[in-house]
Amino acid sequence: MEEEQELLSRIVADLEEARDSSSRTPSPPLSRSTLLDLQSILNADDAADLLDQFFSRLSSKSLSPSSLLPPLTSAMDSGPISISLLSSQAYLSLLLCPNSPVFTLFNPMSFLSLLRSLRRALKNPPPGVQGDDPPSSSGRAGGLKRKKARGGRNNRGKIAGNADDEDDGGGESQVRNAKLFYSVLEKLGSVLDLIHLSRFPDSLKSLVQTVVEIPVLASETLGSSSGSSSGLENLCSRILNRVLKPEHGDQGETAAELLKSLTPLILAVKSHSRSFALGFVKNLVTGLARRSEGVNKACVNLPRYLVRKAPEKAEPRGLAVEAIIDIVKVMELNDQIVFVEYVVKMSEGKANLRILAVDLMLNLLLLLKDPFGLSSDCEPEGSWGLKCFEALIQRCSDSSALIRARGLSNLAQLVGFLSSDDRNHAALRRAMGFGELNMEKGESRIDDLLRRRCMDEKSNVRRAALLLVSKLTAIFGGNLDGIVLKTMGMACSDPLVSIRKAAISAVSQAFRTYSDEIVITEWLHCVPRLIADNETSIQEECENLFLELVLDRVSKAGSDPRLHNASSLSHSESHKIGVDRKMELLFPDGVLLILKTICNGEVTPWVKKICSSLGKKERLKDVIASSLQNIIRTSESNWLSHSMPIDKWTAPAGAWLLLSEVSAHLSDAVDWKFLHHHWRLLDKFGADSEFDPEEDLTHDEGNKNSNSVGWVGDRVFLLQTISNVSEKLPLEPAADLAYNLLKRIEDFNMHSTEVNAHVKALRTICKRNALHPAEAETMVSKCVQEVLSEAVNILENYMDESSRTNNDNSLLTPPRSGIRKSKRAAAASRQLAETVNAVQTIGSLVLVYPSADMSDVIPLLYTIITSGNSDPKLSKLPGPVVPVKETAPSLYIQAWLTMGKICLADGKLAKNYIPLFVQELEKSDLAPLRNNLVVTMADFCVRYTALVDCYIPKITKCLRDPCELVRRQTFILLSRLLQRDYVKWRGVLFLRFLLALVDESEKIRQLADFLFGNILKVKAPLLAYNSFVEAVFVLNDCNAHTGSKNTRTEDSQFSIRGNDESSRSKRMHIYVSLLKQMAPEHLLATFAKLCSEILAAASDGMLKLDDVTGQAVLQDAFQVLACKEIRIQPARGSASDAGEASEEEGSGGDGNGLSAKGRAITQAIRKSLIQNTIPIFIELKRLLESKNSPLIGSLMECLRVLLKDYKNEIDEILIADKQLQKELAYDMQRYEAAKAKSAASGGPSGTGGAGFLSPKDKRVASAVADKAAKVTVRSVLREVNSGAPTPPLSAISVPKLKATADATVGKSGGSGLPSARSTEVLESLRRRQTFMSDDDS
C-alpha cells in the first residue's frame, strides 16, 4: 500500500504544480512518469478504491476531478506520439474506471484532442509499426499487468528506469506504441457505451470522421498485406456500429453522416480501406437497416450519393459502378426498383451522368435477378428490366460519341448474356423493337439504329455497332435487314484494322447463322477480297473463314451418305419434286448458292487467290476435291433420273470452277475416269455449236433453253483441271487428248473464252508427258507452228476476200439480188468469225510460246490496225480500202490485242509500236478497244517501264473517259502500278486521281475512298499535304501558281471549274478527303501555306481577283480555312483506334508528359501562325472592300470562325490593338446585319416573300436583324476579350501594317480605307520560317 500511496502523492503533487502554472497557456502537459503512475493506479486490481483515495486527496488540495483535463489534453495535443497515446489511454481509463465521475471528466475539447492523437499516431508512424502483427487485445500499455501491490512496485521500478528513454526509436518503444494505439481504440469503443454523444453532435461527427480515416492511414502505413490492417478494420467496424445506437442521436442522421464519410473510401482505388468500407455498408444494409427505418433510408440514398460523387475518368468510374452495384445487390427488391428508376431518369441528364447510367444499367441487368419479370406474374412491358433496356437503346443514339460507343458495347454484352436463356428471347425482341416499323423509313427501330451506327463518323462507335450485330444474329430469327448487311459489308473496307476485323466477325456470324441468299452473297463479296489486305492477321482470318464457311460446308455436303441414296426415290416421286428442288434438298445450307456466287466476276479472283494460298500452306484436304466430284455426279444422275436430255444438262454453277482451283494442289484426289467421262460429254455436245462473236453476247442470254455459255465455262474449267492433274494421266489417253485439243484449236470455231484454255492445256499436256525437256520443247514448237500456219492462211484469205469484195462493190452498178446478197453475207459472217478466232489463237500461242516465229503475222496485223489511216505512205500497202474498224470492229479490236501480246514477247517490236498504241488510245471511239488498250499499256508499263513512263499522263486521260468501265479499269490498273512502284506519284498524276473522289460512278468513288483513305495514307503520308495548295488551283483551272497565261485544254478536263453549288461541293469534298489524311502538324502547315500562297498572293495582286478562276480559288481557300477538318481536334492523331478511345483509357506518367509537351508545341505553333495570319486577313478585307468584291462575305465567315476557334491566340492581337478590335466588331456587325436582313426577307432574290412585306414590316425586320448582329458580335468578342488586362504594345511581336500615302479616306464609318499598301510587309510575313520545310517534314 505504501507504493500506491507514494504514486498518488506524486500525481497530486504534479497536479498542484500544474495548477500553480495555470497562468501559462496552454497548460503544461503531464510528464511521462506521471502518466505511467496514473495508468498503474488505473490498471490495479483495486483501482476503484485507489481512485476514491485519489479524488479525496485532490479535494484536500482544493483540486476538482476536472483539474486532470487540462494537463491531459495538453499532453494529447503537444507531446510526442508515445506521450500523446499514454495520455489518451489514461483519459479513457479514467472514464471506464468504476465510480468515476464520467460527466465531470468528459469534455468535448478533451475528446477532440484524443481523436487528434489517434490521427497523429498514424500520420507520423514509427518505422517499427509497419509489418507488425496486431497485438493481443489483453495487452496493457507499458507492459503493465494486474498485480498485487508488490507486483506494482516491481513494474514501477522498470518504468522508472526507462522514464528518460522517450521515443528512442528502439524496437521496444515501437512495439509499445503500437500496443498503445490498439489499446486506445479498444477503450474508445468501450467508452461509447458510457457516454451518449447525442448532446455533443460535433464530437460525434469528429469521431465518425476519425474512425473512417484510420483504415486509410493504416493501409498507407502498414501496407495492404499486413495483418494489422484487418485488425484495425475490425476495431473500427465495432466503433462505428456502436455509434449507430439510438443513445447517440437520431440513427438516420448518424447513418447519413457515417455513409457520407465512407464515400471517399468507397470511390477510392482498390485497397483494404475500400473493401472495409464496402463490407461495412453491406453489413449495415443487411443488418441494422432492416430494423431501423432511418438507417434504411440513409442506405437507400447512398447509391444516389455515390452517383453524384463518381469521378469522370474511366477506371475510377468503373470502380464506382462496381461499388454501387455491390450495395444495390444486397438491398430489398423494392429499393432496387426505385434505384433502377432513378438510373433511367439519370440517363437523360448531363454527359457525365449519362455515361455512368449506361454502365449502371448494364450491371443492373446482368447481376440482378429476373430483369423481365418472367418468374413473376407481372407483364414484361412493365418490368424494370425493359425500362432499363429501352433507356440503354436510347443512349446508343446519344450526342456524345463516347456514350454511343459505350451504350452499343454494353448492349452487345447484355444481348449475349441474356440470349443464352431461351425464355428471354421474346422479351429481348420486344425490347429491341423487332417488328416495330418506322412509318417514315419502313424499317424496324433496331435496323434503323444499326444502320446509322454502323456508318457513324467515330470508329469506336462503328466497332461497337458491329459487335452488337454479331450478338443480335441469335435473335434476329431470319429477319436480317438487307441495309444493315450491306453496311457491314462496307465496313469490311474501313480504314481502321479493328473495324475491319469487327465487320468480318459480324458478317461471318450472320453467315454461320443463316443460309439466305442475301447473306451468302454479301459475305462472298466483302470477305474473300480481304485476302489482299495489308494486315497479315486479316489475311489469315480471311483464309480461316473461307475454309470454315465455304470449303468445309461444301465438303460436308458432298460427302453426305444421303447422296448415295439419292436414286432410291421412285420415278414419280422424282418428277413431283422437280430437278432444282431435289438438288436443294440434297445439298442444304446454301451450298449450291455458294458455288453459284463464286462464279461472280467480282468474287472469282479472290477465291482463286485464297485457294492458291491455302494450297501452298497445305491446308486443303482431299475431301474437298472428292466432294466437288460427288456434287457434279449427283447433279448429272439427278438430271437423267428426270428423263431430261443430257445435252441440256450443266453442272451446278461454280463446281467446276472450284474444282479447277483446288485440283492444282490435290491432284491425287481427282479421278481420271471422272474427268475423261465429262470431257467426252462436254466435247461431244458442246463442240457441235459454233459461236458467232457478234451474236454471242446478245442472243445467248435471252435464250432460256440454251446452255451454250454454261457448257463453254464448264469446258474451260474442266481443261484447267485436266492440266492440273496431267502428270497423273495415262500416256495413251493423254496423247489422244492432246491430238483432240490440237484439232479443236485448228478448227478456229471455239468460243472466245475457250481458246486460251485449250492452248494452255495442250502446252501443259505436251510438256508433262514428254520424256525430257528437249522433247517437250520440240512438241510444243511443232504444234505452235502448225496452228500458226493455219491461222496465217485464214487471215490472208480474209484479207484477199475483203479487198476483192471492196473492188467488186466499187465496180458493180446494178444491185445484187436479195438471195445472193444474204448468202454472201452469211458466208462473210462465218469467215469473219473464223478469222477473229484465228487472230485470238495467235495471241494465245504467243503467250504460251514467246519464241514462235511471227514474221508472217505482224505485217497482216499491221495492215488491219492501220487500215483507213490517212497517212499516204500507209495507203500504198496492200489491204482493204474500207477501214476494218468500220466493216469488222471485232476483228479490229482483236488485232490490237494480239499485236499487244506480240509486243510483250518482243522488246524491239514494242519500242516501235508503243507510240502507235498511245495514239489509238487517244483517238479511238470504240469503248471496248480503249478498255483493252488500257490493259495492254498497263502490261507494257510492267515489262517496259522506261518506255511507257513518258506516256503515263496520256494514259491518265482515260480517268475522264465517257465510259464508266474504261474509267474504272484505268483507275484500278494505275492504282496497282502505283502500289508496286512501276509508276510514281509525280507530275499531274495525283491531281488527276483526285477527280475519282467525285466520279459519277459510285463504285469508282468507293475505290477512290479506299485508295486515299487506306493505301496512300500509309504508303505516301505526305502526298496530300505537299499537293494540297496546287490542287486548289488545278481544280479551279487557275494558272496563277504557274505563271502561265495560256489556257491548257489538256488539264481543263481534270478541273471542276465553276462557282455553282454542285462544283463547289465537289471541290470541297476533295479538300476534306485530303485534310482527313493529314497529321496535326501538316494541318497547321497547310493552314499557313493557304494563307501565304493564296490569301497573300491575292493581296499582292499576284492572284487576279477580276478573273473568275482567281475568285474561285480565293473562295475555296476561305472555305477550307473555316472548315472543321483543318482544325486540330483534342484527340486527333493517326488513324488508329487508340486516338478516339483515349478518353476511355488511363494513361501513365510518361504518356501524360509526352502529350503535355505535344500540346505545348502545338499551342506555340498556333500562336505564331495566327499572329502572321490576322494581318493578312485585315489587309485582304480592305482590298476586297475597296473593290466591292462579293468575296467579302466568305472572308467574314472565315474570320468569324477564326475568332472563335483561335480566340486564345487572337486575344493578344486584339487587346494590343483596340482600334483593330473596334473595326472588326463594326465590320462583323454590319455583315451579320446584312445577312440577317437577307434571311428575314427571304434571300437576295426575294423569293421568300420580300416583295410582300410592308414598309413597317421591313423596318421591323431590319431592326431585329441589327439587334441580332450586335448580339452575335458581342458574343464572339466577349470570348476573345474576356477581361484580360491590356499589355503594352511593345510586348506583342505583331507587325503593324500601315496604310500607304495614297490611301483615300472612306466615308463609311469615318475610317480610312487604303487603295494600296506596301507589298514588302506581306512578303516579309511570307518569308518568316514559322514551320518546317517540306523536306524537313
From TrEMBL:
<feature type="region of interest" description="Disordered">
    <location>
        <begin position="1303"/>
        <end position="1337"/>
    </location>
</feature>
<keyword id="KW-0539">Nucleus</keyword>
<dbReference type="GO" id="GO:0010032">
    <property type="term" value="P:meiotic chromosome condensation"/>
</dbReference>
<dbReference type="GO" id="GO:0000779">
    <property type="term" value="C:condensed chromosome, centromeric region"/>
</dbReference>
<keyword id="KW-0132">Cell division</keyword>
<feature type="compositionally biased region" description="Basic residues">
    <location>
        <begin position="143"/>
        <end position="156"/>
    </location>
</feature>
<dbReference type="Pfam" id="PF12717">
    <property type="entry name" value="Cnd1"/>
</dbReference>
<feature type="domain" description="Condensin complex subunit 1 C-terminal">
    <location>
        <begin position="929"/>
        <end position="1100"/>
    </location>
</feature>
<dbReference type="GO" id="GO:0007076">
    <property type="term" value="P:mitotic chromosome condensation"/>
</dbReference>
<dbReference type="GO" id="GO:0000796">
    <property type="term" value="C:condensin complex"/>
</dbReference>
<keyword id="KW-0226">DNA condensation</keyword>
<keyword id="KW-0131">Cell cycle</keyword>
<dbReference type="InterPro" id="IPR016024">
    <property type="entry name" value="ARM-type_fold"/>
</dbReference>
<feature type="coiled-coil region">
    <location>
        <begin position="1196"/>
        <end position="1223"/>
    </location>
</feature>
<feature type="region of interest" description="Disordered">
    <location>
        <begin position="1133"/>
        <end position="1155"/>
    </location>
</feature>
<feature type="region of interest" description="Disordered">
    <location>
        <begin position="800"/>
        <end position="820"/>
    </location>
</feature>
<dbReference type="InterPro" id="IPR032682">
    <property type="entry name" value="Cnd1_C"/>
</dbReference>
<keyword id="KW-0175">Coiled coil</keyword>
<dbReference type="GO" id="GO:0051301">
    <property type="term" value="P:cell division"/>
</dbReference>
<dbReference type="GO" id="GO:0005634">
    <property type="term" value="C:nucleus"/>
</dbReference>
<dbReference type="InterPro" id="IPR026971">
    <property type="entry name" value="CND1/NCAPD3"/>
</dbReference>
<dbReference type="InterPro" id="IPR011989">
    <property type="entry name" value="ARM-like"/>
</dbReference>
<dbReference type="GO" id="GO:0042393">
    <property type="term" value="F:histone binding"/>
</dbReference>
<feature type="region of interest" description="Disordered">
    <location>
        <begin position="123"/>
        <end position="172"/>
    </location>
</feature>
<protein>
    <recommendedName>
        <fullName>Condensin complex subunit 1 C-terminal domain-containing protein</fullName>
    </recommendedName>
</protein>
<keyword id="KW-0498">Mitosis</keyword>
